[in-house]
Amino acid sequence: MMRQAKPAVARRPLNYQEVWGRVGIYAFLGVVALFFLLPLYVMLVTSFKSMDEIRLGLIFSLPRQFTIDAWVKAWTSACTGLECTGLRVGFGNSVKILVPSVVVSILLGAVNGYALSFWKVKGANVLFACLLLGSFIPYQVFIYPLVRVYAQTGIYGSLAGIVLTHVIFGMPVMTLLFRNYYSGLPIELFKAARIDGAGFWKIFVSIILPMSAPIAIVAVIMQVTAIWNDFLLGLVFAGRENLPMTVQLNNIVNTTTGERAYNVNMAATVLTSLVPLAVYLLSGRWFVRGIASGAVKG
Amino acid sequence: MSSVSLESLDVSYGNVQIVRNLDLNIRDGEFLVLLGPSGCGKSTLLSAIGGLTDVSGGRILFNDKDVTWTDPKDRGIGMVFQSYALYPTMSVERNLSFGLRIAGIDRAIIEKKVKWAADLLQIAHLLDRKPSALSGGQRQRVAIGRALVRDADIFLFDEPLSNLDAKLRAELRLEIKKLHKTLKSTMIYVTHDQIEALTLADRIAVMKDGIIQQLDTPLNVYNKPANEFVGSFLGSPAMNKVEGALVADGDHLSFAAGDFRLDVSRYPFTQKVESGRKVVLGLRPEHILPASGSAAAIEGKVSLVEPMGSSILAWSVFDGLSLSHLVGQDDGCEADRTFAVTIDVQKASFFDVETGWRL
Amino acid sequence: MGAEFTRHVKRNLVAYIALLPMAAVVIFAYLGTMAWSVRLSFSSSKLLPRSDFVGLNQYVTLFDTSRWLTSLGNLAVIAFFFLLICFVLGCLLAIFIDQNVRGESLFRTVFLYPYAMSFVVAGLIWQWILNPDLGIQATMRGFGFSGFVLDWVVNPRMVLYAVILATVWHGSGLVMALILAGLRGIDGEIWRATRIDGIPAWRVYLSIVLPMLRPMIITSLVLLSISIVKMYDVVVAMTNGGPGTASEVPAKFIMDNLFERANIGLATAASTVMLITVLMVMAPVIYSQYFRKSGRAA
User: Which fold has domain A95-245+276-293?
Assistant: First the structure.
């Protein structure tokens, strides 16, 4: 097809105020973007420098000699307290904690949300209100009694203990997330399935779960970042053997004696951030959706 | 097949009573329409009949068997919803067979039933599609099909045509009427659309505020509305309503409103009325007829005409009273002309001013 | 009533069973532990919990403890600046991004990525950048500005602002994302109407758009407030409360007294104070946000 040339139209005269406005907008966004990117840049360049270079005190300069020694050391032999086994142990621990915690908390959240939005259970809304309120309260209120109960039942300092803790403290947000999503589904769907003779689990598995993919993705994103980034719960409940990566990172950086190996520290910091950063970059708008839907109704 | 009886039924949400002390007997094989404005409790009532909403008082009987607390699936009902409520992740075939598969019915029988229903509703070529790939009309056919395969004795329709455009609505209305003729099942149909009610129903129950105002055949509900609400809810164009009084005019009784007079001696009052009684006259536009040389004609001045295709709705002033009336295209009724009409008093309605009930 | 209730439970029995885990979590993990914590705050518990009753003694001691008072004051300062800066910066970023800028998704990604990282990481990065010996201060002095001072992390009078800087970097993207989502939801006809009426853009934002974004604003403020009250990781990683007690915060005060100073009575009294404060602030917000309009009628 031939494209016809557009007839010449008198262009709107340039409005200088508007031009300066655009320049201002980009300038502001650019400066703030630099401020936000600065730590990432510093973290990366530092991690590729040698300590000799760092001692020059030029924090913004690119490394003159790229070296991945710091990364290797951070991963394999950095000292967390007395042991010098690097972050890989913490990484493994975090994965071991992450997988069961994410799976169990999402499944429970989905069942809770489903029961709350489609079934009439007396007192359920009161329970849910308490649960929500609980999510606003600092962990410090719950921690000590939980530690005692865990110690009594023998799960204190075990993988089961930390997983259970993540399930407990992830429950409010997961339940809210699924409840809001399910409340948006037409209730007629549920009624039709009831007339078709489907019971609680049949409706959940055959009709509701297959429709849950979008919200499940959001839930996975939220839980993976939240649990990976957790520090306090891991510190208290995971026990010596299962300390997650964030705790190990803090130990590497803040409990070293003698001269601090800043390049190793920064390499360790980057390593610890890789999982949530990857989740964030790959999930794009889903991440924002998670933030928004976890908090506002609808 | 089944009859349905509701005995002093109450349904409430919290403190709000939606259905109050309602009695209703639906005959075996009857097509009953629950008609009323939104919020009148008709859908709640249907939901209660289906067992999806718990009742707070009274009993529900199917074929004289108490089913008030029976599970929906054991009531022998099929239900069609306004939003279709098709399971979005299942194909049409799976949608139709879902209930049968849960019931553990033999595959061959399921296949046969699905085929039968699909043929009946002309959706056989759609069986492999997902609901999202169907048009509105097709979706509603599938929803009806889902009720069909269940071998239901009683079909419940909850405003099934409200989401469709006018043409499809007429088409599917006819389809449902045919279906009722073929299956002879009991059908209970909720709608706010009077045309659907009048065309489909054996009997119409007009509801308002959780109470049945009138339960009768379409013709009777239309021609002899039990009260002012029913009179004005049904009929398009709407009924004229005039407040006035009955006066003795020599040897006969007349209705008077301002200068307007109407001889009502031929009106079949259901009770004794005396002169001076305050009443509301309800007059449908089609019962004010163009005069054909009769002596009883009254003349009015036409103020406005609204052509409606097959006929024309005219607004004219008769002795200071503005009434709408239907005229034919060839009756020569034009704005600002005078026009003579006769009023068919026998088909009018009189209501008590205070209670609104028919006199 | 009794018979009716039995019938109701029978019809919904599976739903009741499915909600048992949630009920257990609410009753034991949230309410039970909360009650236990509050109970302990009225006892003389030190290293081990005791079941005696000493009235408000622990509370009296608590408010006599300068470290606690310092941490409360610090929290107030941090909360004020953190909320203010995050909110203003987040709104500005959202509004500027909404001006049809090029590279919008890049800007969005840059402004929100810190939120995906853990507080520990945020604390460690900024600790390094602000390091007076080798960080920005050293670099600037190296450039010849020998009098340049940026010693926030080691200066007791400035250390709070270092913490605020790190948390603002971490959290303003959240406000940006939520407000931007809200801006995108505003009907274009409103903009056309205001243009016809000739209302200046800043006025439209201030008087029309921001009020329409109320739910988003409340959500972001609630989320930010929770993160302040729970603030622990970032302080531990960045300053460990120091220098001295200059950046001490309540959550850390409680943790130290629970696990290091073996002063359970005092710690639980402090956590009870936090609990009551949070409940008083959050209860109305939760009620209005989640319960007034939400849920199903049926």
Answer: MetI-like fold (1.10.3720)
Bigger pLDDT: C189 vs B148: B148
Locate the domains of chain C by residue range.
1-40, 58-291
Answer yes or no: do B142 and B99 share one domain: yes
**Pair B100, B29 in one domain:** yes
Q: Which chains touch A (3 or more CB pairs under 8 A)?
A: B, C
Query: Which pLDDT belongs to residue A298?
Result: 30
Domain co-membership, B331 together with B277: yes
Asked if B254 and B218 sit in the same domain, the reply is no
- Interchain contact, B79 vs A193, CB within 8 Å: no
Q: What is the pLDDT of residues A146-187, one digit of tens each?
A: 999 999 999 998 999 999 999 999 999 999 999 989 988 999
Closest Cβ opposite residue A37 in set C40, C110, C272: C110
Q: How many CB atoms lie within 10 A of CB B102?
A: 17
C contacts of B57 (beta carbons < 8 Å): none
How sure is the predictor about A3, in pLDDT bands with cuts at 50, 70 and 90?
Answer: low
Q: Is B116 a member of any domain?
A: yes
Contact C7 B69 (CB under 8 A): yes
Give A211's contacts in chain B (Cβ within 8 Å): 88-89
Same domain, B16 and B126: yes
Share the mean pLDDT of chain B.
89
Closest to A42 (Cβ–Cβ): which among C114, C129, C293?
A: C129
pLDDT at A182: 93
Cβ <8 Å between A195 and B102: no
Chain B residue at shortest CA distance from C296: B13
Using the 8-state DSSP alphabet, how is residue C98 labeled?
T
| Chains A–C, number of C-beta pairs less than 8 Å apart | 282
Q: How confident is the model at residue C298 (pLDDT cuts 50, 70, 90)?
A: very low
Please report, for the domain that includes residue B191, its CATH number: 3.40.50.300
The reply to whether B35 and B176 lie within a common domain is yes
- Residue of C1, C11, C12, C296 to mutate, interface with B, max B Cβ within 10 Å: C11
Q: Chain C residues with CB inside 8 Å of A56's CB?
A: 142
Backbone angles phi, psi at C33, to 5 degrees: -65, -35
Residue B90: list chain A partners with CB under 8 A: 206-207, 210
Here the CATH number for the domain that contains residue B263 is: 2.40.50.140
CATH number for the segment(s) C58-291: 1.10.3720.10
Question: For the residues of B72-90, what is the DSSP string, one character each?
Answer: GGGTTEEEE-TT----TTS
Quick check: is B221 in a domain? yes
Q: What is the pLDDT of residue A293?
A: 65
Domain that holds residue B289: 240-352
Q: Which has the minimum average pLDDT: A131-135, B146-150, C1-5?
A: C1-5
**Percent share of chain A, pLDDT over 70:** 92
Q: Do A188 and B82 touch (CB under 8 A)?
A: yes
d(CA C111, CA C86): 12
**pLDDT tens for each residue of B13-44:** 878 889 989 999 999 999 999 999 988 999 99
Residue B96 forms part of a structural domain: yes
Q: Mean pLDDT over all residues of chain C?
A: 87
Work out the minimum CA distance from C283 to partner chain B, whole angstroms. 24
Domain count, chain B: 2
Partners of C36 on chain A (C-beta within 8 Å) are 144-145, 148
Considering all CA atoms of chain B, what is the largest pairwise distance in Å, rounded to the nearest integer? 80
The ranges assigned to domains in chain A are 16-67, 95-245+276-293
Distance of residue A193 Cα from the nearest chain B Cα, in angstroms: 8
